[in-house]
Design a protein that fits this description.
- Helices cover about 50% and strands about 15% of the residues.
- The strands form four sheets. Strands 5-6-9-10 form a four-stranded antiparallel β-sheet, with no helix packed on it. Strands 1-11-8 form a three-stranded antiparallel β-sheet.
- Helix 3 packs across helix 5, helix 5 runs antiparallel to helix 6 and helix 9 runs antiparallel to helix 10.
Length: about 575
């Protein structure tokens, strides 16, 4: 089947290009698991009974055997993210994040900037604020991991209990004991501080907490890769929508020109007495339909341009336009089976599910660590100094002194009973890990369904391009023959109107088929990570623009926008007013 496809591609004039952008499928780098996870055993394949013709099913490996218990992202197979704008696009840098226009002149469009697909992708990667926010989430996860790694280091705490303190007071005793003073006074300045160094020798929660933070960091990096690839897909699809809107405007303009020509012919024949008023009304009706089609195309074009501008976060006074016309990008080479297998190895969503399992197991171990012994080594250095007298007679002289103490030892903490809270939390996390295994299976099935949907939709759009292109050619020729018959007086204006409407609808369907094909092609590239595409051979165009007939080259005058209330109502039209 592959040979037949390549043969058809060669006959159709298709040039095959190697995968230069991203043909390598991402392979995850497995890391040693921090905590053992209970995995289901691979069922042994029973050989078929003798005499039976049933095929032997192939053993499918587990995801943890392929990707590891804690898969890590490999950015080497990913095209480097563009950090700077391409030359010539510096003026299209995104405005400040907190910029907020306050006057109409600050949002009035002053420039229409044509952009190619590659320039759109570059602007999206550099300017898009959502991608910048996801990139900051990676830094946040890295900072959280660094905070957990600090559990391996000792802590040093400085405490100042008296910086300084002054104590004063008097004490009076009405029945003093023999040999003691009846009245005492206190008048003392004191300073005291301590420096405590503590290091956890045994901390059962330290390793699982660090493992969970490291897995969360890997999830953040995978989420950034997912967001980056989704952004590229959104930018490409928004650009294709803009191309379709431009085609809709072009088709609407051509339809209006054709309707103007038909209306002129109908009026000329009516004035010559060889046509009826009905034919003139039919031509006017078709002109109104085509003007409505043009109006919808212009509105769709304006919305598509501003949608792309919002995605690229362009300056408020710039509106992008499509530099390249709508055309088929190429043909998808990999088979359905190759696409499915490539998507399993490429999609970070599966790695995310495995990391969720690892995080749940690490949190279960951390919960169990709460009821295990903690052993710390503590060293406390204390120093104090005082000046004055403390509860002595008034005539006693003041005294000065200082002291330095150092204490080192071990401290043990062991929660012997907590009412079963730790065990319940550990069981909760173990059940969450089991839930994530089922979610992995659900996500795996969804990924295959997405690839199959894109593959079959791509085949459908491929057939639609072939059928709609033939429809455009035959409809254009049918309209030409119908006009000749109308000018010869052997047909009616109704047939011309029908032929013209068929041509307009055929051109719209062809433009829609090309747009859907390109969007689906970009979608399957995103879902599989493959870039094996047979690029279409560019058409050979003459250097000189072909001349147009004067009867067809009719200017399309802009129609003034009247208020909706001024439009004739159905009641007045029915009454002949």
């Amino acid at each position: 089947m592959r040979r037949s496809f390549l043969a058809r591609a060669a006959l159709a004039g298709i040039v095959l290009f190697p995968a230069t952008l991203q043909s390598t499928v991402q392979r995850s780098q497995a890391a040693p698991a921090a905590a053992p996870m209970a995995e289901a055993q691979v069922p042994a394949v029973q050989p078929p009974a003798s005499g039976s013709g049933d095929p032997v099913p192939e053993v499918v490996p587990l995801a943890t055997q392929v990707k590891g218990n804690r898969p890590r992202s490999n950015p080497d197979v990913l095209a480097p993210v563009q950090k700077q704008l391409l030359p010539g696009l510096e003026r299209l840098a995104s405005p400040p994040s907190l910029a907020l226009p306050t006057t109409p002149s600050q949002v009035r469009i002053q420039e229409l900037r044509p952009l190619s697909l590659s320039e759109v992708e570059n602007l999206a990667q550099v300017n898009n604020p959502n991608l910048k926010a996801v990139a900051l989430q990676v830094d946040e996860a890295q900072a959280s991991l660094r905070a957990q790694i600090a559990l391996w280091y000792p802590t040093l705490t400085l405490t100042g209990t008296s910086l300084p303190t002054y104590t004063s007071g008097q004490q009076y005793n009405s029945s003093p004991v023999l040999g003691t003073a009846a009245n005492t006074v206190t008048n003392r300045w004191a300073m005291a501080s301590s420096l405590t160094a503590q290091w956890a020798l045994i901390n059962p929660q330290r390793v699982p907490q660090i493992a969970a933070a490291r897995d969360a960091f890997e999830k953040a990096k995978n989420q950034y890769l997912i967001a980056l690839r989704d952004l590229r897909l959104q930018a490409a699809q928004a650009y294709f929508d803009l191309q379709f809107a431009d085609e809709s405007v072009r088709i609407g303009q051509e339809s209006v020109r054709a309707s103007i020509v038909s209306l002129k012919d109908a009026r000329a024949r009516y004035q010559a007495g060889v046509a009826t008023k009905l034919e003139v009304l039919q031509a006017e009706t078709q002109l109104s339909r085509d003007q409505q089609l043009l109006t919808e195309g212009l509105a769709q074009q304006a919305v598509a341009r501003r949608t792309l501008a919002a995605l690229l976060d362009l300056p408020q006074i710039v509106t992008p336009t499509a530099k390249e016309p709508a055309r088929v990008l190429g043909s998808w080479i990999p088979s359905l089976q190759e696409s499915i297998v490539a998507s399993y190895a490429f999609r970070e969503e599966l790695d995310q599910a495995i990391l969720d399992i690892s995080i749940a197991n690490s949190q279960a171990n951390a919960a169990l660590g709460a009821i295990q012994p903690f052993l710390n080594i503590v060293n406390t250095l204390s120093a104090s100094r005082y000046s004055g007298q403390l509860q002595v007679s008034a005539d006693t002289a003041a005294s000065n002194g200082w002291s330095v103490d150092n204490a080192i030892g071990l401290s043990l903490s062991w929660r012997l009973y907590d009412g079963g809270a730790a065990s319940a939390q550990a069981r909760q996390q173990k059940l969450l890990a089991q839930e994530n295994r089922f979610r992995f299976a659900s996500r795996r099935d969804a990924i295959r369904q997405e690839v199959e949907e894109s593959f079959y939709t791509l085949l459908k759009n491929d057939r639609n391009i072939s059928t709609t292109s033939r429809e455009v050619v035959t409809s254009r020729e049918a309209l030409r023959l119908t006009r000749l018959r109308f000018q010869a007086g052997v047909t009616t204006q109704r047939e011309v109107v029908d032929s013209q409407r068929d041509l307009t609808q055929a051109e719209v369907r062809y433009a829609q088929a090309v747009t859907n094909y390109n969007k689906t092609l970009a979608q399957i590239r995103r879902r599989t990570g493959l870039d094996r595409i047979a690029l279409c051979k560019p058409p050979t165009l003459p250097a000189v623009k072909p001349s147009e007939y004067d009867s067809v080259n009719v200017p399309v005058e802009p129609t003034p926008l009247a208020p909706a209330c001024a439009a004739p109502s159905m009641g007045r039209a029915a009454a002949g007013l």
